[in-house]
Amino acid sequence: MEVDVLVVGSVNVDLVVTVPVLPSAGTTVTGGTFERHHGGKGANQAVAAARLGARVGLIAAVGDDPPGEEAMTQLRRDGVDVSGVARIPSEATGVALIVVDLQGENQIAVAPGANGVLDAAMVGEALDRIALAPRGVCLLGFEVHDGAIEVAAAWAAARGSRLLVDPAPARRLSETLVGCRPMLTPNVGEAAELSGESSPRAAAAALAVVTSSPVVVTMGEEGVVLVDGDRPETIPSYAAEVADTTGAGDTFSGALAVGLSEGRPFVEGVRRAQAAAAISTQAVGARSGMPTRAELDAFLTGAGSVRGRPLGGNGVPT
């Protein structure tokens, strides 16, 4: 199958508790509500891209268990090709425990399960069955091991395909990955950890020097810092009535991959990705608010609503 966006990353089950305030260390917060959602950064990014109309393939691993089967079924429903997703009999499907407060901020702890088994050999075998479109984008995440990431990065680089990396959770960029000139999309904390710079602008500039590629540092409601050339540029965020920020970064990465696969200029792709991420925060759960192509276009033109919710700010940057 030929795809526009190929994602290599994680698949999880998200167990979400919404509480009045996030607990601090050693404390208990009661009065919460519980929901169960499909998640994992790789799977979320794949769904975000598919809802925007791209042909999407996912390389990942799940357990040979009911949560794994449910995850595969939902991905297929969202239009994601899961032929590259391995079933691992000896492992459980990954689980993320997520606590969300009434302002939409969250805390997340992950038990990787089958995600931790995905290795270079498994990814290489799956890559043999996938064709990336001429303008296709390979999107990688750090919830799987370096070996899995590096073989996919080298595969994309050898074909001259664009390589987008969401370095979350942050860890050292390997020499192999850096040599493939990835475009990075860290958040503020990840950018600081990767670069050693506390300022998002300085961090973006430093990472762009390391990778010789564009860098976008996402800052939530403060917008993004983009480096695609000589100096950093700050782009404001879009207004939204935030219910839950879980999955907003994944929506951003998936939407940016789609924009690049459509041949859009990098800065235009970033702005569309910002809008998609803003829309996604208006519903609880990593994927519940991810927009379709029509919804994203409506948001950007200030027309209509998203599944009955008013478009925050009528698509106007804050």
Commentary on this structure:
The protein is 34% helix and 26% strand. The protein has 318 residues and is α/β, with parallel strands linked by helices. It has one domain (2-21, 34-315): UDP-N-acetylmuramoyl-L-alanine:D-glutamate ligase, CATH 3.40.1190. It has a 6-stranded parallel β-sheet with strand order 5-4-1-8-9-10, sandwiched between helices. Helix 3 packs parallel to helix 4 and helix 6 packs across helix 7 (200-211). The longest helix has 15 residues, at 266-280. The termini are far apart.
Main sheet specs? 6 strands, parallel
Percentage of residues in strands: 25-35%
Which of globular, elongated, flat, extended, rod-shaped describes the shape? Answer: globular
Order of strands, widest sheet: 5-4-1-8-9-10
The strand count comes to 15
| The named CATH superfamily | Ribokinase
Order of helix and strand elements from N to C terminus: EEEHEHEEEHEHEHEHHEEEHHHEE
CATH class: Alpha Beta
Report how far apart the termini are: 41 Å
Number of helices: 10
Percentage of residues assigned to helices: 25-40%
Query: What is the CATH architecture term?
Result: 3-Layer(aba) Sandwich
Indicate the low-confidence ranges by residue numbers: 303-318
Counting helices, strands and paired strands, the structural category is alpha/beta
The tally of structural domains comes to 1
Work out the radius of gyration.
18 Å
Q: Average pLDDT across residues?
A: 92
